[in-house]
Amino acid sequence: MPVEFSGDEALRRYGRYAGEPSEEQLHRYFRFDDHDRGLISTRRGKHHQLAFALQLATLRFLGTFLPNPLDIPEVALTYVARQLDLPIHQGKLDRYAVGERRWDHQAQIREMYGYKPFSDPPEVLGLVRFLYARARLTAESPSVLFDLATARLVERKVLLPGVTTLTRLIARVCDRAEERLWRDLARQPNASQRANLDALLQVPEGAHVSPLERLRKPPTSVTPKGLMGALKRVEAVRLVGVQGVDLAAFPEPRLAALARSGMRAKAQALRRMTSDRRLATLLVTVHRLEAEALDDALTVFDSLLTDLFNRIDRRADEGRLDTLPSLEEAALRTHRLAVAFLQTLEDERRDFEAFIRSVLALVPREQLQQAVDTIQGLTRPRRDTHIENLLERYGYVQPFVPLLLNTVGFEAGHSGRPTLAAIRALRSLERRKRIATDEVPLDVVRGGWEKVIERGEGELHRPAYTLCVLENMQSALKRRDLYVPASGKFGDPRMKLLSGRAWEALKSLSGKSRSEWGDLPPDDEAGDQLDKSHVMACLFLPPNQKSSESIEPTVAHLHNPATWGMTLRITRWRQRCCLRRFLRDMRCQCVLFCDFATACGVVTTIQYQMPLFLSTEDWHSNDNPFKHCTQHFAVVTVGTTERNGEGNAFGIGQKVALGS
Questions:
Q1: Domain DUF4158: where (predicted)?
Q2: Structure-derived torsion over alpha carbons of residues 217, 222, 225, 231, reported in degrees to the nearest 10
Q3: CA dihedral in degrees (100, 101, 103, 109; nearest 10)?
Q4: Which residues contact residue 360 at a Cβ distance below 8 angstroms, ignoring those fewer than 6 apart?
Q5: Which residues, in sequence order, are bridge partners of residue 614?
Q6: pLDDT (tens digit, 9 = 90+) per residue, 578-600?
Q7: pTM of the entire structure?
C-alpha cells in the first residue's frame, strides 16, 4: 500500500535552512566553546577556519552537511564571523565551496565529534525497530514518523540520509506493520464468522446497497418507528456474530484508525482489498458498530422522550390559557367571599348568621359551589396534569418498549439499582394481562406516580408503571446511574478510573486512606507537613440543580454566574491535597494529587462536570481571600487524566483520582 507524506513543505525543508535562525537557535547551535575554538584555530587560513566553523554549526543545527557549505542565511554567517573575529572573504569562500578541502573538513568533524553515517548497521537496525514499534502501536501518520525519525537521528549523532532514503524506509516499515496487523486480525474470526463478514459486502438481489452500508447508516428520525429501526440495527450487527472475538491484545489507536477507514470505504473498495486486509477491516468495523448503534439508539430514545414531555407540557399550558376566563370568574366570586369574611372579622359582634346572609346576598349558593368546583378542577398540581396527559399518550411509546428492553443490556451502579430492578421486572411482564402490585418493585414509583399505579384490589396499572419506569430510565441514563456496558457514550463511567497496579501506585502516594483523614485543622504542623496556604473551590451548580443530584457529563454550558455555590476547603500537604470538610450530600470524597503551580480543582463525583472558582489565601493573611481570585469554566471529570492538561489552559483534570 503506498504511504503518503502530507507535509510536502516539510520534506522540501528537510536538510536545509528554512529561513533565518532565531536568536535562541543562534545561541544554542552557532555558539562555540573553548574546545570548539581550539579545533577551529588549527585550520590553516582564516577563511578555512570560518568555513570549518560554518560546517560544524550547520551539522549541529540540521543534522547533516550541505552540498554547498556556504548556502546558509546571512545572519548565521555574520554571527559566526563576529564571534570568532574572522573576516569574510567571499572570493576565498566561493573557491572553498567547490574545492576538495570541504570534504576533508567534514570527515574531520565526524571523527572529532563522534558522528556516524546513516549506513552504520546498529543505528539503522535501531531506527527500524523504533519506527516499527511506533507504527505497530500507534496510528501516527508517516509525516509524524518522519519527524520522529529525524529527531532520533539528530539526537544520536547520525548523519541524516537523503529525503528519499528516509521516506522509503518509513513507507516500508509502515507497510510491514500494517500487513502484520491485518494478518493477525484476519486470524481471529473462525470460518463461520469470516463467511458472515464477507457476506456483508454482497448486494442482495433486488437491493441497491450492501448489508454493510445499511448497518453503517445511522437513524435519521426521532419517532417510535425511527427508534425501532435503530434497535433493529443493533440486532442486525449482533447477528454477524463477531462480538465475542477478543481484540484486547491489539493496540487501540490502530483499531480506531482501521474502524474509521471501514466506516468510510465503499463496499466496492473493500471487495478489491487483499483477503487479510478486507477481513481485518470488516472485523474491527463491525466490532465497533455495536457500540455506535447502541449510542444512536439510546440518543434517539432520550430525544424521543424529551420531545414527548415537552409537547405534553406545551399542551397543558395551552389548556390553562383556554380555561383562564372560567378561572377568573370563579376567582372573582371567591374574592367577594373573602372580602365579606374579612369585614366580619373587623366587626366586634361577629354575627355568624349575619355573615352567612351577607355572603349569600353577594354570591348565591349555587354560584359559590360552582366557583369551588371550577377552582378545584382548574388548579390541579402540574405534576398530576403531566402524568394524566402522559397516560393518554401511552399508545405512542408502547410499540418500542418490548424491543428496547430486550435489545439493550442495562446495568447499574449503586444509585441505579432500583431502576434496573424495575426494568428487569417490566421485561418479565411481557404478554401478561393481570399483574399484582406486589409482583414488581415499587421503589421508583414516586413523584405523583403512586396515585395512579394501582387500579384497585392490588392490580397494577401497567401503562402507568411502564411510563414511570421509562421516565426513571431516561434520568438515570443521563446521570450514568444506569449504563450500557456495550455502549460507548452511555457506558460505565467507572471504567475510565485508574485500577489495578496503576491505582495502587498512585494510591500509595497519599499515605492515608480516606477514612483516616479526619478533620485536619489548619494549624496542624505534625511532621512539618502542613503548608501555609489553602485553596477555596466553589463548585457552582445551575440555579435549578440540587446539590444532591448529578449533572449530565455532556452539559458544558452552565449558568454564568451561578446563583449559589458550595464551598469546600482543601488543605494542602507537601505530598498531597486532601479535602478538609465535605458536605453531607457529597456522594464520594476525593484525593487530589497536583502541583499548585497549575490551578487544580475538585468535583464531587465521577459524573460531575461544572465550572470552578479558585482563589488562594495565606493562613496568616487578613486580606480578603477572594481579592485575587481566578474564575474559569473548564469542564473536568474526577478519575480521568488529561495528558499535560490538554483541553484547557489551567491544567484542570491533570491528576485527579477517587479515594478508596
A1: 9-173
A2: 50
A3: 180
A4: none
A5: 537, 630
A6: 333 333 222 233 333 333 333 33
A7: 0.66
